[in-house]
Amino acid sequence: MYEVEVKVPADLEAVRDRLETLEATRLGSVVQADTYYNAPHRDFAETDEALRVRSERPDDSTEKTRVTYKGPLVDEETKTREEFETGIEDAETTDAILTSLGFEPTATVRKDRERFSLEEYTVTLDTVDGVGDYVEVETEVADESDLEGAREGAYDVLERLGLDPDDQIRTSYLGLLLET
Amino acid sequence: MYEVEVKVPADLEAVRDRLETLEATRLGSVVQADTYYNAPHRDFAETDEALRVRSERPDDSTEKTRVTYKGPLVDEETKTREEFETGIEDAETTDAILTSLGFEPTATVRKDRERFSLEEYTVTLDTVDGVGDYVEVETEVADESDLEGAREGAYDVLERLGLDPDDQIRTSYLGLLLET
Q: Which residues of B touch A96 (CB under 8 A)?
């Protein structure tokens, strides 16, 4: 499965109005804390990989934790990568296992996310602690040959939300946080 | 938390009879498949660590998967180690994450386990595919200073089960499997 994801800085109130006009479905909101780890045997900043433990508290449920591995970029344009993710019971024990294996936590990104569904795309309004407000438009495709069409569709969604695809930020929130 | 664990080869039918006489509580039985991984940056055979993904199907429930890190031995005598373990949603995805990070599966140990509780000890009757039949007696202590007493208690349990603490096998099932 390949993920297509485009992100631009945005005035979230204005985007919320456009989503209402477009009759997007509000999926809910969550508070996320993402801790990123670096490996003992290779530098993920160089290999362009990521290992993340995400604790997520939805507005209507209890906290859930997931671990995610993101491989190097397949497509520079849309930040497409191979991704493996599974739920885990306990973030603290996972941290103990990873640090025992020599992995080191490098940074924690905290954000409020509000998600909407618009056709086959998910639109996420993010308020990132210490970084700013952003809108992400994403979808998944099974085949690499469908990436180009999915990317064009994501740009189209941005335009309908009053946003400019040329404002696209390719730096991750982790990268933006580390730049501050 | 420190784990005290002693293991001896045994005639499981005879031990089952003794457990009944001692009025031990039968806790249930499970089928376990343990996959062990080696690290890309150090050889766990040399550092005496272990990283294990265990899929367990209890006789009365659905399959559960857990990931466990075991640190080097703290006490040679009883195989005491520091251990971190947490539940995970999906074994296959965990395998994909670990192999992407450069970890390699080295072996899979499959066994049927029947567990009993006898005072503060857990007695496990193991039938290990390709290895043989064993009894494990284990308990946990919070403090390292309680290890000696817990170990003596484990030997005492073995004797009451008609087993000889001198038959203790310090090699793991993984080790025994790799020796075959």
A: 69, 84
- Maximal C-alpha separation, chain B: 51
Residue B114 half-sphere exposure toward CB, CA atoms < 13 A:
12
Answer yes or no: do A101 and B40 touch at CB < 8 A: no
Contacting residues for A68 by C-beta, under 8 A, at least 6 apart = A50, A51, A52, A53, A54, A83, A84, A85, B97
Number of neighbouring beta carbons within 10 Å of residue A62? 6
The answer to whether the CB of A139 falls within 8 A of the CB of A78 is: no
CB contact under 8 A, B89 and A88: yes
Instruction: Look at A69 and B100 and tell me if their CB atoms are within 8 Å.
Output: yes
- A36 is an active site residue: yes
ipTM score for this prediction: 0.70
Contact B84 A97 (CB under 8 A): yes
B-chain CB neighbours of A97 within 8 Å are 51, 67-69, 84, 86
Alpha-carbon gap: A21 to the closest alpha carbon of chain B (Å)? 38
**Quick one: DSSP state of residue A170?**
-
A88 touches chain B (CB under 8 A): yes
To the nearest 10°, report the CA torsion of A52, A53, A58, A62. Answer: 170
Please enumerate in sequence order all residues whose Cβ is within 8 A of that of A145, keeping only pairs 6 or more positions apart, or say none: none
Per-residue pLDDT of chain A (180 residues), as tens digits, is: 788 999 999 999 999 999 999 999 999 999 999 999 999 999 998 998 999 999 999 887 888 999 999 999 877 766 677 899 999 999 999 999 999 999 999 999 999 999 999 999 999 999 999 999 999 999 999 988 998 999 999 999 999 999 999 999 999 898 899 887
